[in-house]
Amino acid sequence: MNPTYPYDVHLPANIDTDKKYPVIFTLHGKGSNEKNMFSLVAPLADDFIIIGIRGNLPLGSGYQYYSLKSLGNPIREMFDEAIKNLEAFIQYATEKYPIDQNKRYLLGFSQGAILSMSLALTMGDKLKGIVALNGYIPDFVKTEYVLKSVKEVSVFVSHGEYDSVFPVRIGHESAAYFKDQTPRLTFNLYPTDHGVSEENQLDFLNWLKQDLELITTKEREEA
Question: What is the arithmetic mean of pLDDT over 200-206?
Fold first, then answer.
């Protein structure tokens, strides 16, 4: 299979060829690229495989995964295609690299957060968890998609209190939606605009480490 998306892969420096690793797939915002996402998760590069997925549609000096009719209103056909292609890419990468399929995480900002939340709902427990930074869930995903249970999926949602692109109420709406779906929700607000503060970064890095430790401990107990 030829992957739909260009991507960067970072393997742990001292990789053990007999071991499978947790993975973080990063999804960037509209007009950005996969390299801008790596710095957010670089501190985890010794413990996770990190795969930055670049949108396949050029936009200015960057890229996007789908186009919009208007702000907050994706072109449905392009969005549907992106969801299908990203699910296929996640499977492709899982087969190509030494990835533990029970420890797959998505981390997205803005358009990438929108896709991360939507993929959690379409893939269910095929994902271990998501980090969604300053995004939302399209209404058609909630009402028209075939949704899987996210009861076992860990979800970290954060939003800027002064977000000038997606107002903070949207963050509250996303959190309220997931709160009804999973007991594994963390929701944080930060005094920022449409961006990721150092505090936000430290919080989701610690959250990812703790979530991985929980599943690793559970595996040891069951072994």
Answer: 98
